[in-house]
Design goal:
This protein is of the alpha/beta class and 321 residues long. β3 (41-49) and β4 form a beta hairpin. It has helices spanning 83-90, 125-137, 156-160, 181-186, 200-212, 254-260, 296-301; strands spanning 6-18, 21-28, 41-49, 52-59, 70-75, 96-100, 103-104, 115-120, 141-147, 168-172, 193-197, 220-223, 235-239, 244-248, 279-284, 287-288, 304-306, 311-312, 316-319. It folds into three domains: 6-104, Translation factors (Elongation Factor Tu (Ef-tu), domain 3), CATH 2.40.30.10; 114-223, Rossmann fold, CATH 3.40.50; 235-319, Ubiquitin-like (UB roll) (Roll). Strands 1, 2, 3, 4, 5, 6 and 7 form a seven-stranded antiparallel β-sheet that branches. The chain binds FE2/S2 (inorganic) cluster. FE2/S2 (inorganic) cluster (FES) binds at residues 268-271, 273-278, 291, 293, 306, 308. It comes from Xenorhabdus khoisanae.
Length: 321
Protein backbone atom coordinates (compact mmCIF):
# COMPACT_ATOMS: atom_id res chain seq x y z
CA UNK A 1 0.00 0.00 0.00
CA UNK A 2 2.89 2.28 -0.75
CA UNK A 3 0.91 5.09 -2.36
CA UNK A 4 -1.75 5.07 0.32
CA UNK A 5 -1.58 5.93 3.98
CA UNK A 6 -1.81 2.74 6.07
CA UNK A 7 -4.24 2.66 8.95
CA UNK A 8 -4.31 0.24 11.87
CA UNK A 9 -7.84 -0.89 12.69
CA UNK A 10 -9.52 -3.39 15.00
CA UNK A 11 -12.42 -5.59 13.96
CA UNK A 12 -15.13 -4.56 16.42
CA UNK A 13 -18.03 -6.52 14.95
CA UNK A 14 -18.74 -9.21 12.35
CA UNK A 15 -22.33 -9.85 11.24
CA UNK A 16 -23.57 -12.61 8.98
CA UNK A 17 -25.77 -10.87 6.42
CA UNK A 18 -26.43 -13.89 4.17
CA UNK A 19 -24.80 -17.35 4.12
CA UNK A 20 -22.06 -15.92 1.85
CA UNK A 21 -21.84 -12.27 2.95
CA UNK A 22 -20.45 -10.87 6.19
CA UNK A 23 -20.30 -7.28 7.36
CA UNK A 24 -17.13 -6.21 9.19
CA UNK A 25 -17.02 -3.11 11.39
CA UNK A 26 -13.53 -1.61 11.76
CA UNK A 27 -12.59 0.93 14.42
CA UNK A 28 -9.25 2.74 14.76
CA UNK A 29 -6.50 1.23 16.92
CA UNK A 30 -4.78 3.35 19.58
CA UNK A 31 -2.43 4.99 17.02
CA UNK A 32 -4.94 5.73 14.30
CA UNK A 33 -7.39 8.44 13.50
CA UNK A 34 -9.72 7.39 10.70
CA UNK A 35 -9.74 9.87 7.80
CA UNK A 36 -13.21 10.97 6.76
CA UNK A 37 -14.53 9.64 3.45
CA UNK A 38 -17.01 10.55 0.74
CA UNK A 39 -19.78 8.17 -0.32
CA UNK A 40 -18.72 5.64 -2.95
CA UNK A 41 -15.20 5.32 -1.46
CA UNK A 42 -13.34 2.05 -1.05
CA UNK A 43 -10.46 0.87 1.10
CA UNK A 44 -7.89 -1.87 0.57
CA UNK A 45 -7.63 -4.48 3.29
CA UNK A 46 -4.23 -6.09 3.70
CA UNK A 47 -4.37 -9.77 4.63
CA UNK A 48 -1.46 -12.02 5.46
CA UNK A 49 -2.07 -15.74 5.45
CA UNK A 50 1.23 -17.56 5.85
CA UNK A 51 3.31 -16.73 2.79
CA UNK A 52 0.31 -15.34 0.94
CA UNK A 53 -0.59 -11.70 0.99
CA UNK A 54 -3.82 -10.28 -0.38
CA UNK A 55 -4.91 -6.69 -0.85
CA UNK A 56 -8.57 -6.60 -1.67
CA UNK A 57 -10.64 -3.49 -2.34
CA UNK A 58 -13.99 -3.14 -0.58
CA UNK A 59 -16.53 -0.32 -0.75
CA UNK A 60 -17.31 1.47 2.48
CA UNK A 61 -20.97 0.95 3.17
CA UNK A 62 -21.61 2.98 6.29
CA UNK A 63 -22.65 6.61 6.32
CA UNK A 64 -19.87 9.03 5.36
CA UNK A 65 -21.11 11.15 8.27
CA UNK A 66 -20.16 8.37 10.70
CA UNK A 67 -16.56 9.28 11.50
CA UNK A 68 -15.89 6.60 14.11
CA UNK A 69 -15.71 3.49 11.97
CA UNK A 70 -15.53 1.90 8.55
CA UNK A 71 -17.85 -0.89 7.48
CA UNK A 72 -17.29 -3.27 4.59
CA UNK A 73 -19.20 -6.29 3.30
CA UNK A 74 -17.25 -9.31 2.06
CA UNK A 75 -18.81 -11.92 -0.17
CA UNK A 76 -17.16 -15.29 0.03
CA UNK A 77 -16.27 -16.02 -3.59
CA UNK A 78 -16.22 -19.66 -4.63
CA UNK A 79 -13.15 -19.15 -6.81
CA UNK A 80 -11.51 -16.34 -4.85
CA UNK A 81 -7.78 -15.64 -4.96
CA UNK A 82 -7.95 -16.25 -1.22
CA UNK A 83 -8.84 -12.86 0.24
CA UNK A 84 -12.55 -13.39 0.75
CA UNK A 85 -12.02 -16.87 2.21
CA UNK A 86 -9.44 -15.38 4.60
CA UNK A 87 -11.87 -12.68 5.76
CA UNK A 88 -14.64 -15.24 6.29
CA UNK A 89 -12.61 -17.96 8.00
CA UNK A 90 -9.67 -16.34 9.75
CA UNK A 91 -10.71 -12.87 10.83
CA UNK A 92 -12.36 -12.62 14.27
CA UNK A 93 -13.67 -9.82 16.47
CA UNK A 94 -10.73 -8.13 18.20
CA UNK A 95 -8.23 -8.88 15.40
CA UNK A 96 -6.02 -6.06 14.13
CA UNK A 97 -5.91 -5.35 10.40
CA UNK A 98 -4.08 -2.90 8.19
CA UNK A 99 -6.24 -1.00 5.73
CA UNK A 100 -5.56 1.86 3.32
CA UNK A 101 -6.99 5.33 3.62
CA UNK A 102 -10.24 5.65 1.61
CA UNK A 103 -10.12 6.49 -2.07
CA UNK A 104 -13.11 7.36 -4.26
CA UNK A 105 -13.47 6.28 -7.91
CA UNK A 106 -17.26 6.19 -7.76
CA UNK A 107 -18.29 9.58 -6.41
CA UNK A 108 -21.68 11.18 -6.97
CA UNK A 109 -21.68 13.75 -9.77
CA UNK A 110 -22.13 17.25 -8.36
CA UNK A 111 -25.09 19.08 -9.84
CA UNK A 112 -26.82 16.00 -11.31
CA UNK A 113 -30.53 16.58 -11.81
CA UNK A 114 -31.37 13.03 -10.74
CA UNK A 115 -29.22 10.12 -9.55
CA UNK A 116 -30.15 6.61 -10.73
CA UNK A 117 -28.34 3.90 -8.78
CA UNK A 118 -28.36 0.40 -10.30
CA UNK A 119 -27.01 -2.42 -8.11
CA UNK A 120 -26.52 -6.07 -9.05
CA UNK A 121 -26.10 -8.47 -6.10
CA UNK A 122 -23.17 -7.53 -3.84
CA UNK A 123 -22.82 -4.41 -6.03
CA UNK A 124 -25.25 -2.86 -3.53
CA UNK A 125 -22.37 -1.95 -1.18
CA UNK A 126 -21.19 1.45 -2.54
CA UNK A 127 -24.81 2.55 -2.77
CA UNK A 128 -25.36 1.91 0.94
CA UNK A 129 -23.14 4.94 1.64
CA UNK A 130 -24.47 6.97 -1.32
CA UNK A 131 -28.00 6.78 0.12
CA UNK A 132 -26.89 8.73 3.21
CA UNK A 133 -25.18 11.37 1.08
CA UNK A 134 -28.15 11.75 -1.28
CA UNK A 135 -30.59 12.15 1.60
CA UNK A 136 -28.29 14.72 3.18
CA UNK A 137 -28.21 16.66 -0.12
CA UNK A 138 -31.98 16.34 -0.44
CA UNK A 139 -31.25 15.06 -3.95
CA UNK A 140 -33.61 13.34 -6.33
CA UNK A 141 -32.65 9.67 -6.65
CA UNK A 142 -33.80 6.06 -7.13
CA UNK A 143 -32.04 2.81 -6.24
CA UNK A 144 -32.77 -0.20 -8.46
CA UNK A 145 -31.54 -3.36 -6.75
CA UNK A 146 -31.35 -6.36 -9.10
CA UNK A 147 -30.84 -9.96 -8.02
CA UNK A 148 -31.64 -13.42 -9.27
CA UNK A 149 -33.56 -15.09 -6.43
CA UNK A 150 -35.71 -13.71 -3.67
CA UNK A 151 -33.62 -15.61 -1.09
CA UNK A 152 -30.23 -14.09 -1.84
CA UNK A 153 -30.27 -10.28 -1.59
CA UNK A 154 -28.05 -8.70 1.04
CA UNK A 155 -29.29 -5.80 3.14
CA UNK A 156 -32.89 -5.79 1.85
CA UNK A 157 -34.46 -6.03 5.35
CA UNK A 158 -32.22 -3.16 6.42
CA UNK A 159 -33.06 -1.08 3.36
CA UNK A 160 -36.78 -1.72 3.66
CA UNK A 161 -36.74 -0.60 7.30
CA UNK A 162 -34.70 2.53 6.54
CA UNK A 163 -35.65 6.10 5.69
CA UNK A 164 -34.57 5.32 2.10
CA UNK A 165 -37.20 2.61 1.59
CA UNK A 166 -39.49 4.63 -0.70
CA UNK A 167 -36.58 5.19 -3.10
CA UNK A 168 -35.64 1.50 -3.40
CA UNK A 169 -37.08 -0.75 -6.12
CA UNK A 170 -36.16 -4.46 -6.04
CA UNK A 171 -36.01 -6.43 -9.30
CA UNK A 172 -35.96 -10.22 -8.87
CA UNK A 173 -35.30 -11.92 -12.21
CA UNK A 174 -36.54 -15.37 -11.06
CA UNK A 175 -39.90 -13.73 -10.27
CA UNK A 176 -40.09 -12.01 -13.65
CA UNK A 177 -39.52 -8.49 -12.34
CA UNK A 178 -36.28 -7.91 -14.25
CA UNK A 179 -35.23 -4.28 -14.59
CA UNK A 180 -36.12 -2.89 -18.04
CA UNK A 181 -33.03 -0.82 -18.66
CA UNK A 182 -34.19 0.62 -22.00
CA UNK A 183 -37.40 1.91 -20.46
CA UNK A 184 -35.67 3.26 -17.35
CA UNK A 185 -32.96 5.16 -19.21
CA UNK A 186 -35.22 6.48 -21.98
CA UNK A 187 -37.44 8.18 -19.38
CA UNK A 188 -34.71 9.96 -17.43
CA UNK A 189 -34.87 13.74 -17.23
CA UNK A 190 -32.01 15.62 -18.91
CA UNK A 191 -29.02 16.04 -16.60
CA UNK A 192 -29.53 12.69 -14.85
CA UNK A 193 -26.53 10.53 -13.91
CA UNK A 194 -26.61 6.72 -13.85
CA UNK A 195 -24.34 4.73 -11.51
CA UNK A 196 -23.96 0.96 -11.92
CA UNK A 197 -22.22 -1.59 -9.73
CA UNK A 198 -22.67 -5.27 -10.50
CA UNK A 199 -21.75 -7.94 -12.99
CA UNK A 200 -20.16 -7.38 -16.39
CA UNK A 201 -23.48 -8.23 -18.08
CA UNK A 202 -25.35 -5.63 -16.01
CA UNK A 203 -22.73 -3.01 -16.90
CA UNK A 204 -22.97 -3.94 -20.58
CA UNK A 205 -26.77 -3.86 -20.45
CA UNK A 206 -26.67 -0.32 -19.06
CA UNK A 207 -24.10 0.77 -21.67
CA UNK A 208 -26.19 -0.63 -24.53
CA UNK A 209 -29.45 0.84 -23.25
CA UNK A 210 -27.76 4.24 -22.87
CA UNK A 211 -26.34 4.05 -26.38
CA UNK A 212 -29.74 3.18 -27.87
CA UNK A 213 -31.37 6.33 -26.51
CA UNK A 214 -28.32 8.58 -26.90
CA UNK A 215 -27.77 8.97 -23.15
CA UNK A 216 -24.42 10.81 -22.71
CA UNK A 217 -21.43 8.58 -21.86
CA UNK A 218 -20.04 11.08 -19.38
CA UNK A 219 -23.20 10.71 -17.28
CA UNK A 220 -22.65 6.97 -16.84
CA UNK A 221 -20.55 5.75 -13.91
CA UNK A 222 -19.38 2.20 -13.21
CA UNK A 223 -17.76 0.53 -10.22
CA UNK A 224 -16.12 -2.81 -10.75
CA UNK A 225 -13.22 -4.03 -8.65
CA UNK A 226 -12.21 -7.15 -10.54
CA UNK A 227 -11.12 -6.96 -14.17
CA UNK A 228 -13.22 -9.38 -16.19
CA UNK A 229 -10.55 -10.17 -18.74
CA UNK A 230 -6.80 -9.62 -18.61
CA UNK A 231 -6.03 -12.02 -21.46
CA UNK A 232 -5.26 -11.20 -25.11
CA UNK A 233 -2.68 -11.63 -27.87
CA UNK A 234 0.92 -12.29 -26.87
CA UNK A 235 3.44 -9.44 -27.25
CA UNK A 236 6.97 -8.40 -26.30
CA UNK A 237 7.69 -6.01 -23.47
CA UNK A 238 11.04 -4.26 -23.29
CA UNK A 239 12.31 -2.86 -19.98
CA UNK A 240 14.24 0.21 -21.16
CA UNK A 241 16.52 0.63 -18.13
CA UNK A 242 17.91 -2.90 -18.22
CA UNK A 243 17.28 -3.67 -21.90
CA UNK A 244 15.59 -6.94 -20.87
CA UNK A 245 13.01 -8.24 -23.39
CA UNK A 246 10.22 -10.51 -22.19
CA UNK A 247 7.44 -12.36 -23.96
CA UNK A 248 4.01 -11.76 -22.41
CA UNK A 249 1.91 -14.81 -23.26
CA UNK A 250 -1.82 -14.51 -23.89
CA UNK A 251 -2.81 -15.61 -20.37
CA UNK A 252 -0.31 -13.61 -18.27
CA UNK A 253 -0.10 -9.94 -17.35
CA UNK A 254 3.04 -7.83 -17.81
CA UNK A 255 3.41 -7.69 -14.03
CA UNK A 256 3.25 -11.46 -13.67
CA UNK A 257 5.86 -11.97 -16.41
CA UNK A 258 8.24 -9.42 -14.86
CA UNK A 259 7.83 -11.03 -11.42
CA UNK A 260 8.26 -14.54 -12.77
CA UNK A 261 11.53 -13.51 -14.45
CA UNK A 262 12.65 -11.35 -11.51
CA UNK A 263 13.35 -8.69 -14.15
CA UNK A 264 12.46 -5.64 -12.03
CA UNK A 265 11.01 -4.83 -8.64
CA UNK A 266 7.48 -3.49 -9.06
CA UNK A 267 5.19 -2.22 -6.32
CA UNK A 268 1.64 -3.54 -6.63
CA UNK A 269 -1.41 -3.50 -4.44
CA UNK A 270 -4.79 -4.41 -5.90
CA UNK A 271 -3.51 -6.17 -9.09
CA UNK A 272 -6.93 -5.33 -10.58
CA UNK A 273 -6.30 -1.92 -12.16
CA UNK A 274 -7.97 -0.02 -9.32
CA UNK A 275 -5.31 1.51 -7.08
CA UNK A 276 -2.75 2.97 -9.53
CA UNK A 277 0.26 1.60 -7.63
CA UNK A 278 1.78 -0.19 -10.64
CA UNK A 279 1.40 2.78 -13.04
CA UNK A 280 4.34 2.71 -15.47
CA UNK A 281 5.42 5.17 -18.17
CA UNK A 282 5.17 4.01 -21.79
CA UNK A 283 8.20 4.91 -23.94
CA UNK A 284 7.17 3.16 -27.19
CA UNK A 285 4.05 1.40 -28.38
CA UNK A 286 0.43 1.69 -27.28
CA UNK A 287 -1.38 0.13 -24.35
CA UNK A 288 -4.67 -1.73 -24.52
CA UNK A 289 -5.98 -0.20 -21.29
CA UNK A 290 -8.09 -2.47 -19.07
CA UNK A 291 -7.84 -0.56 -15.77
CA UNK A 292 -10.39 1.51 -13.88
CA UNK A 293 -7.89 4.05 -12.61
CA UNK A 294 -6.80 6.26 -15.52
CA UNK A 295 -9.13 8.90 -16.92
CA UNK A 296 -10.23 8.77 -20.56
CA UNK A 297 -7.79 11.60 -21.37
CA UNK A 298 -4.92 9.76 -19.68
CA UNK A 299 -5.74 6.61 -21.63
CA UNK A 300 -5.84 8.48 -24.92
CA UNK A 301 -2.50 10.16 -24.21
CA UNK A 302 -0.79 6.72 -24.01
CA UNK A 303 1.70 8.18 -21.54
CA UNK A 304 1.34 5.52 -18.87
CA UNK A 305 -0.40 2.22 -18.15
CA UNK A 306 -1.29 -0.12 -15.29
CA UNK A 307 0.82 -3.18 -15.90
CA UNK A 308 -1.16 -5.45 -13.53
CA UNK A 309 -3.99 -5.66 -16.06
CA UNK A 310 -3.42 -3.68 -19.28
CA UNK A 311 -1.82 -5.18 -22.36
CA UNK A 312 -0.24 -4.00 -25.64
CA UNK A 313 -2.23 -2.96 -28.71
CA UNK A 314 0.59 -4.06 -31.01
CA UNK A 315 3.41 -6.58 -30.87
CA UNK A 316 5.85 -4.53 -28.78
CA UNK A 317 5.85 -2.15 -25.82
CA UNK A 318 8.82 -0.33 -24.34
CA UNK A 319 8.36 0.66 -20.70
CA UNK A 320 10.30 2.99 -18.44
CA UNK A 321 11.46 0.18 -16.16
S1 LIG B 1 -1.60 -2.87 -8.66
FE1 LIG B 1 -3.33 -1.61 -8.42
S2 LIG B 1 -3.56 -0.77 -10.40
FE2 LIG B 1 -1.98 -2.20 -10.64
Amino acid sequence: MSTYQKLGVIVSDIETITPTIKRFTLIPDENTQLPSFTSGSHIFVQMRDGDNQYNNAYSLLNSPFDEQRYQIAVKREEYSRGGSAFMHEKVAIGNKLIVSEPNNLFALAPGAKKHILIAGGIGITPFMSHLHELEQQNAEYELHYCYRNAGEPAFTPELMASRFKDKVVCHISSKGSRLELDTLISRLPEGSHVYTCGSHSLNEGVRQAAQKVGFPDQQLHFEQFAIEDKTGDAFTVVLAKSGVELEVDSESTILQVIERNKAASIESLCREGVCGTCETMILEGEADHRDQYLSDEERKSQTSMLICCSRAKGKRLVLDL
